[in-house]
Amino acid sequence: MRTRFIDTSSFLYAGFAILAASLFAAFAFVGKQATDYRDVGQLIGEKQIQHSILDRLQEAESAQRGYLLTNDAAYLAPLDAATAHIAGDFDVLTRGSEPGEERDALEALRGLANEKLAEMRKTVELQASGRHEEALAVVRAGSGRASMERLRVGLDAKSARQQQMIDTQSRIVERSGSLLRAGAAIAISVTILIGAATIGLLRNRLNEIASAQAELRDVNVALSAEAAQREQLAEQLRQSQKMEAIGQLTGGLAHDFNNMLAVVIGSVNLAKRRLSTDPTETLRYLDGALEGAEHAATLTHRLLAFSRRQPLAPEPIDPNKMVSTMAEMLRRTLGEDVCLEAVFAGGLWRAFADPSQLETTILNLALNARDAMPQGGKLTIETSNAYLDENYSARELDIPPGQYVLIAVTDTGTGMNRDTVARAFDPFFTTKPAGRGTGLGLSQVYGFVRQSGGHVRIYSEQGLGTTIKLYLPRHHGPATVAPAAATHARSTPRSEKSETILIVEDDVRVRDLTADTLAELGYNVLAAESAAAALRQLEVCPNISLLFTDVVMPDTNGRKLAEEAWKRRPDLKILFTTGYTPNAVVHNGVLDPGVELIVKPYSIDRLARKVRDVLDGARAVPSETKTMRRKVLIVDDDAAVCEAMAELLRLENYEVCVASDGLRALEAAQTFKPDVALLDLGLPGINGYETARRLRQLPETRDLLLLAATGAGGDEVRRLCEAAGFDLHLVKPIDLDALKALIDGQRPHPTRSA
């Protein structure tokens, strides 16, 4: 069977070669035929032009005679036309002729035509000047007739030659057609033979193919079973790795928190026992308990930093100035065995990050470097401008290309191997001996830099040292840097003006403890367990200076309470507190503008300073609070589009209501009372135009900003939108920043399409 298959294949290859040759020849003949047809067409066109020249000259002669007989200028139109077109006709003939005798003959004929036209133009000029007899004399002289006759003879001769060429080309075209038909017959015959052979081959191969398919199905079943088994094993491995990571995290947490709780619980128990017998020892145990609790708070903050959930207050930073300011403190911290060198770049851009967190990050890296150089060494902190291009960003995860400010910390210590570098940012992973570190320093660095929109990389060689590069986003705004806060110690501030603070906290123990703490600091304290109770206190107590509220509460969050409080008391100062930073006052990891926040747990000194700073500072209302939260009604029958836009606007702190058709939109508008309505025009039931008209008629929505959203633009849609009462017509997809500008009140001229 294999031999027969090979012979048949050879026959097919030969047949395909003959077919290809036939087709190639056919294409060649077709191309030649097209060229011959084009040549014949050109010759026919030239004959027509030649006849046109004679016709125009004869019409010009008739016009000349009519004018000489009647002196009526209306007869001169054919003469003017001949003068205008004959030169162009000769130009066309000249371009189609070959240089040499043929072109010289055409130029001679052009001269004869020009002589005839000149003779006719001369008689016309004489007749126009009243010299009729002289004009007749020119005609009787016969020079024009002679020129005309010679021109006719020359053009007739050229036409005869062209006719011969046309006849010759026609015979060639006929022969090409015959050859083309013969070639087509051969190609059809070969095609039939190849088709027959192919059918025979396919019949012979069908059984083999069916057998191969059956075998392939069996193999596929086996492979699918193996792939399913491998996927199951891979899922088990991923689950095992996930549980191992969770186990490492929870194990580290349990270990560190148990140590700290052991200190706190043991110290408090001992303090209770010694309270009546040894006050000095009692204070020592209480100090130990406080130290353990502070370590636990630090651990919590580091975990939030690693998970990118800490509240940041970024601002423009001059890294050169920051490192220079920290240099002396770092030298004292690192000790005499470590030589610190700072290399500052000229023309350094401003970075945009949280200054206190960046200082902590640099300090953590410096301490890690010191621990990696037990025998001493050199620590270099270097700054420079950097640009991460698209190729680099494509190799990394969630690193946008662009301009960054680089801070590199390099040591000459023991270095790390590749496996250690890969795990260096894992929480609770450390190569230090037991008791020398929590394993959260680098994870905190990683979380802070990534939450700031930056990038961090480790470059290390064992025995040579380590470089950690921090890429912080560049600040593109004004180059003003906030003055560094004073770092010198100051005494715990107290109230000296009998100020009143309203505490809002749902946890009774935290509320009572905070109240006692503030009372200890000299403040008058009022307490409320909920937002409703706090608002009642504000109504009956006009002398409240500060609202100190938890962010997360059962009935409503602290941000909504603050908005209601500011409606009643625009001058009221507010301080938020929380143990975790939800989106109420923090968005994308950054504190909202104007928000004052202190994170739990806090010491009495830190609380005292924060409260004093807020009370002594200027009242700064966040921008979204000044204008209040704008209410947006989105109406679209496409649920996916509607919810996506609604979620984007909610993330920008707008209050959003959605509706899927016009009737639901009208119902929602009466209760929701939106500031802005974004309507799709192609709504089911009543369309967007009619919905807009009805919204304009409602007293609750007569003055709202009406925005039309559609996939099509144009003057007609704009006209209809204007007639329906829309303020603006937006074409999908809608730019979110432009929409935000419209919602916030930056309204362009009504009915202008965007």
UniProtKB/TrEMBL annotation:
<feature type="domain" description="Histidine kinase">
    <location>
        <begin position="252"/>
        <end position="476"/>
    </location>
</feature>
<feature type="transmembrane region" description="Helical">
    <location>
        <begin position="12"/>
        <end position="30"/>
    </location>
</feature>
<dbReference type="InterPro" id="IPR001789">
    <property type="entry name" value="Sig_transdc_resp-reg_receiver"/>
</dbReference>
<keyword id="KW-0597">Phosphoprotein</keyword>
<feature type="domain" description="Response regulatory">
    <location>
        <begin position="631"/>
        <end position="747"/>
    </location>
</feature>
<dbReference type="InterPro" id="IPR005467">
    <property type="entry name" value="His_kinase_dom"/>
</dbReference>
<dbReference type="InterPro" id="IPR004358">
    <property type="entry name" value="Sig_transdc_His_kin-like_C"/>
</dbReference>
<keyword id="KW-0418">Kinase</keyword>
<dbReference type="Pfam" id="PF00072">
    <property type="entry name" value="Response_reg"/>
</dbReference>
<dbReference type="Pfam" id="PF05227">
    <property type="entry name" value="CHASE3"/>
</dbReference>
<protein>
    <recommendedName>
        <fullName>histidine kinase</fullName>
        <ecNumber>2.7.13.3</ecNumber>
    </recommendedName>
</protein>
<keyword id="KW-0812">Transmembrane</keyword>
<dbReference type="InterPro" id="IPR036890">
    <property type="entry name" value="HATPase_C_sf"/>
</dbReference>
<dbReference type="InterPro" id="IPR036097">
    <property type="entry name" value="HisK_dim/P_sf"/>
</dbReference>
<dbReference type="Pfam" id="PF00512">
    <property type="entry name" value="HisKA"/>
</dbReference>
<dbReference type="Pfam" id="PF02518">
    <property type="entry name" value="HATPase_c"/>
</dbReference>
<feature type="domain" description="Response regulatory">
    <location>
        <begin position="500"/>
        <end position="615"/>
    </location>
</feature>
<dbReference type="InterPro" id="IPR003594">
    <property type="entry name" value="HATPase_dom"/>
</dbReference>
<dbReference type="InterPro" id="IPR011006">
    <property type="entry name" value="CheY-like_superfamily"/>
</dbReference>
<dbReference type="GO" id="GO:0000155">
    <property type="term" value="F:phosphorelay sensor kinase activity"/>
</dbReference>
<feature type="transmembrane region" description="Helical">
    <location>
        <begin position="179"/>
        <end position="202"/>
    </location>
</feature>
<dbReference type="InterPro" id="IPR007891">
    <property type="entry name" value="CHASE3"/>
</dbReference>
<keyword id="KW-0808">Transferase</keyword>
<dbReference type="InterPro" id="IPR003661">
    <property type="entry name" value="HisK_dim/P_dom"/>
</dbReference>
<feature type="modified residue" description="4-aspartylphosphate">
    <location>
        <position position="550"/>
    </location>
</feature>
<keyword id="KW-0472">Membrane</keyword>
<feature type="modified residue" description="4-aspartylphosphate">
    <location>
        <position position="680"/>
    </location>
</feature>
<keyword id="KW-1133">Transmembrane helix</keyword>
